[in-house]
Amino acid sequence: MRLLEFESKEILKTYNIPVPSGQVISSGETIKVDGPAMLKAQIPLGGRGKAGGIIAVSSQEEAKEKAEQVYSESIARALAVSRETIDKAWKDSTETSELIWNIFQGDTK
Hints:
Order of helices and strands: HEEEHEEEH
Number of strands: 6
Strand content: 15-25%
Strand order of the largest sheet: 1-6-2-3
Shape: globular
Distance between the termini: 28 Å
Mean pLDDT: 77
CATH superfamily: ATP-grasp fold, A domain
Radius of gyration: 15 Å
Low-confidence stretches: none
CATH class: Alpha Beta
CATH architecture: 2-Layer Sandwich
Number of domains: 1
Helix content: 25-40%
């Protein structure tokens, strides 16, 4: 089964695992950005960061410009992007990474 990042986040939320807040957007939809954020192409492959599919943005205008740029390009192996997420930037994800690691090890404390 292949899940897109936003689909995986929904599953994690059902187990009360913290994930960055954000919205799923499609081309032409209004983007809401309040401060630094990460714009992420939703494609079913790894390597989207190196292929230009994950972009840091700092304003709503920049997010809109970069989102349209990503929609107009193909990412990794010529996949067209039809959806993206815009997530609030996290300062430190160490705690969440440790929580996920503990869950995989069978320790949910």
